[in-house]
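User: I'm curious whether this sequence folds into something compact or stays loose and floppy. Could you predict its structure so I can see for myself?
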Amino acid sequence: MKPLQILLIVALPFALSSHMALAVPPRKAPRPNIVLILADDVGFECFGSYGSKEYHTPRLDALATEGIRFENCHSNPLCTPSRVNLMSGKSNVFNYQDFGVYPEGEPTFANYFKSLGYATTIAGKWQLLTKKRGVTPEEAGFNTWCVWNYPGYGRKRYWDPSFNRNGAPLGLPKGTYGPDVMVDFAAEFVEANKKRPFLLYYPMMLPHNPFLPTPDSVNRGETSPKQNFVDMVAYMDKCVGRVVDTLEACGLRENTLILFAGDNGTNRMVTSELRGRRIRGGKGRTHDYGTHVPLIANWPGRIPPSQANDDLICFSDFFPTLVEAAGLPPKEIRQGDGRSFWPHCLGKAGGKRESIYGYYFPRPYAKKFDSMFYHWEVRYARDRRFKLYDNGNLYDTVEDVLEKHPLPTDEANERTRLVRQKLQETLDSYPSQGESIDYDRVVGARSLSLNPHGDIPGRSLHTPVQIGR
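Assistant: Here's the prediction. I'll summarize afterward.
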């Protein structure tokens, strides 16, 4: 055999092998997993990554250091309004009905992910169904669930709790600590679905009052509400760490986006120290201590580490962000006002919000409206510094965080005039009243709602009388 023939015979298989390898299409990357964690009643001031020296949050601080921390995320001031906003991707002014109610027929992010083949679950606080209205976890798109605050179940959430697991009461031995049950359920879900993409929604019960000792409290008989709250924040952090550890043990960490946020500001019974300031929790209030919450995003290898971002984020933004991060087809949301902050997570410029909008009317059918939890209807728009209410009051939230001194209406002040004009445009772009509120049933707030300025003699519309709960 001639040398050339030998060379062709030897080389041909390698050439064919190389050609075949090039002809095979590249393997499609698996869809990522989504873990969305929502803490209950804890503002930005309670985390080491935000500057606190008073609270112990090492696992969340590590997620922030290895990912991105958002400095300007704003929720609604109370739990149900925030959750409806978060799950639907639209402002409360479009679909909020009443406290403890998720609007029937309103698609959630879980509905969407489930429709595209994701396994979905929720572990934690529900509070979106009453005996008259609302939806079940199944209707909201969750394949499985373990939830607290469900009609027909007890109110205990911590020691010896009452939970609904997949439609049935969960029998628990005496001395059970509720948050452990929820994180166990979340871990079981991750392990059971490690071979398919999943969405885990973990709306924690911690660290909402009652402020009770945790299993890790040094003094289980501790009666100091503040010390118990500090311990509960630490246990919240520990539970988040358990979820992270489960993902790592299952080999899923590199393909999982974790988002952590708070649902509203800290309880007013709690005062914290932050960078030389004393911050009293603002839950139920529309000033910054009621709406400014932590937001941390972490995805190893995708989200660059050591980022801090001060762009405006609102809760309508979570739905489109989850969709974009997962690489799913964009979801068209009727009246949706969310904007994805996924590019921000990747360190990309562009798409920044100039302002965000807020709507707060937590219990529209109350007999009176004179407190933070029975608050009259109010709308506001804000940028990173200034906030304009629908009664015309404009505040500098940096110099006057508790919003006690409205800025004067001074046409000669060009900066104030332009800020007021810009924020008024944002207000005017939304409905003047809640579109799902039956105003014929509203008692005591109807005249306020119909008054374009919302004036109350001697009181600003957004500033309620301070009444304990």
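Summary: Residues 356-450 form one domain. Confidence is low (pLDDT under 50) at residues 1-23, 446-469.
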